[in-house]
Amino acid sequence: MLSFIAKNKNDIIYLSLLLISISIGPYYRGIKSVPTKKWAGTVFGILLIIVVSGYSAIHPILSATLGIFAIKLTSIRYCHIVTFFLMFGYLFFFRLADKFGLPLSSGQTNLIEMIIVLRVVGVAFEMNGSWLAMKKDKKNDSKDVKEKDSKEIKDRDDDFVELINPNMIDLFHYSFNYVGLLTGPYYRYRTFDDYFQLPFSKYADCFGATINTLRTVPVYISLYLAFSNIWPLEYVLTEGHNNRHFVYRMLYPWALFAAFRQRIYSGMTLAESVCTSAGLGAYPVQGRNRTGHGPTVGYLKLKKMSETEAENTLYDFNTVESMDVWGCETVVTLRDSMKVWNKAVQYWVAVVVYKRFPIKPLKVHAALFVSVIWHGFHAGYFFCIYFCPFYLMAEDIYYKLYYKDATGTKKKIMGFIMWFLRSHSESYQAAAFLLLSFDRIWIYYSSVYHYWYGVWLAFLIIGIVLQQLHKLKKPKNVDDVKNK
Fold first, then answer.
1. Distance in angstroms between the alpha carbons of the first and the last residue of the chain
2. Where are the transmembrane segments (predicted)?
């Protein structure tokens, strides 16, 4: 037992801090004074950083402070660009601190720094995006456009329906508030501001949502401990592993990825529970709330909701949902799996990088590259994340040819095959993500002869041939129908 505690000391401390954050949620939610509530959340957030990081706490605190000054001292036209490069530049420095004669920080501090980067860069893009949207509205200031815009807002909101321009103190509070600081999830500044200005957290069933979220955590933790002990990661680097049957070596990453998923599920679920316990992210269900974004329909109308209406409406916490666990386990395609995995970060990458990157053909590559460097500089992140498009190219072909329009038994069989291939591909990539360094990855991939890259290439070539044959047959069938 003592050896287990010593080995997992940092994880146990981190887990304890998450549980403490959950337990204080009801008390934090009950603070009446908005300024007091903001400062209480910020002070506790900074204390968490210090407890987790010790002397290394200077990194997240300093980087966020520099980012805030960059936002406020730069024109709103360019603040997002300046802040992006400043924050990622500091992230590089933070991870290469040993090259500058400074000690490297713990993995837990790295997680906090990653969240700080998302918040500070995210709010800069929010400010710039809202400014551009308001500027565009002024240019289109005509009666016809106004009627059209009001109808669009009623049916579905744009990304920005009002100007977002917080002062320096509010940026400080947003950056360091304890809710979501340890493991996420990412949420917009708008969501943070609504938490203090709107009455939704007062009437949402925060306790019920927290219990409902937490009930699966013991299962995830138990499965993680079981999988990681029965199938340890380091075993793939041993001679004993290399002497096992090829099928065993080929399927070993399934166990590694299963253990990794349980670890992520437990951490993300606890992080969501910190939000639900505090009431942050509660919105009326009629807003059709989306992870990271919040309400997508009728946001301005929701803001005008009276106390009586707020008291009698239904709420959800979709805005702070990070993981769709059932979806992660059951979706058929890798494309769908990417959408339900770490949804809040996926949202950030989409709105900050993919939508805003100016060169359309390179949008996907820019999004993947930023995702990789946000995770770290290890080769394993590149192998895992940057190889996804190559599998997706083949997967999309087979999905359209054999699964999309299939029905009945054929759809079930094709669905199982695609699910198996998707799961196997993720497991193969996850091995690289976990092994991190190139030499360790090369040892494992060599033990299975790098076979999956060959399978990918074969799938893609065969898929392209089948796609071309399908296209050749299609016009002929159309002509036959016309002649008949």
1. 78
2. 12-31, 43-71, 78-96, 116-134, 366-392, 442-466
